[in-house]
Amino acid sequence: MNYDKEKVDEIVLALLYLTTFNDDYGFRAWKGMNWDAMDRLHEKVYIGRPKGKAKSVALSDEGVKLSEQLFKKHFGLSDTKV
């Protein structure tokens, strides 16, 4: 199937925000996402190497910021009440 990989990468990075946590090693997120998308995010230097035994992946400083911004963009509620 053909699809817009940039859009998928944006949504995957936004969804990583849901599972982001900060520990002794920095910001990390659980890596239960599509491996191809995770590899592309690694190539873009938003996350660390996704392959390995660890169940989480490190996020770069830019990845942390962009993840939060994209989550708010795609899933945040507007401030206006209906």
Which helices and strands appear, and what pairs or packs with what?
Layout: H1 5-16, E1 20-23, E2 26-30, H2 35-43, E3 56-58, H3 61-75
Antiparallel strand pairs: 1-2, 2-3
Helix pairs in contact: 1-2, 1-3
Describe this protein with a few key phrases.
alpha+beta; Arc Repressor Mutant, subunit A; 3-stranded antiparallel beta sheet; 3 helices; 15% strand; 82 residues; 3 strands
Protein described:
The structure is a single chain. With 82 residues, this protein is α+β, with helices and mostly antiparallel strands. It has one domain: Arc Repressor Mutant, subunit A, CATH 1.10.10. Helices cover 44% and strands 15% of the residues. The protein has 3 helices and 3 strands, in the order H-E-E-H-E-H. It is globular and about 35 Å long. The relative contact order is 0.21.
**Helical fraction:** 40-55%
- Uncertain runs with pLDDT below 50, 5 residues or more? none
Number of helices: 3
Tell me the count of domains.
1
Order of neighbouring strands in the sheet with most strands: 1-2-3
Strand content: 5-15%
* Main sheet properties: 3 strands, antiparallel
Concise summary:
The chain has 82 residues and is α+β, with helices and mostly antiparallel strands.
